[in-house]
Design goal:
The chain contains three helices and three strands. By secondary structure, it is α+β, with helices and mostly antiparallel strands. The protein has a domain of 54 residues. The chain has a three-stranded antiparallel β-sheet with strand order 1-3-2.
C-alpha cells in the first residue's frame, strides 16, 4: 500500500510562525546546554515562568526563553 497517498500536506509558505506559540520544556533547555541552575534562577527572578505542565514537565514559551537568553547575553561573547 502506498502510504504517501494517505498523507495530507500543507504549503509551508502559507504557514505563519509566531514565537509566542512555540513551547519548550525544561528538559529540552537542559539538553541544549542551559545549566539547570540558570533556568532555576530565571524562574526565581520571574524572568521566565512556566507556561504549562504536561506529563510532569515544565514547559515555557520560546519567546520568553529567547528574551531571557538575550537579556543574560547567553551564547554571546561579551
Amino acid at each position: 500500500m502506498n502510504r504517501l497517498s494517505e498523507c495530507n500536506y500543507i504549503n509551508p509558505s502559507k504557514v505563519s510562525l509566531d514565537w509566542e506559540c512555540f513551547v519548550l520544556s525544561k528538559t529540552d533547555m537542559e539538553l541544549d546546554g542551559l545549566p539547570k541552575e540558570l533556568i532555576n534562577a530565571w524562574m526565581a527572578e520571574n524572568i521566565i515562568e512556566p507556561f504549562s505542565i504536561r506529563n510532569n514537565e515544565l514547559n515555557f514559551k520560546t519567546k520568553d526563553i529567547r528574551e531571557a537568553l538575550a537579556k543574560q547575553n547567553w551564547y554571546y561573547e561579551t
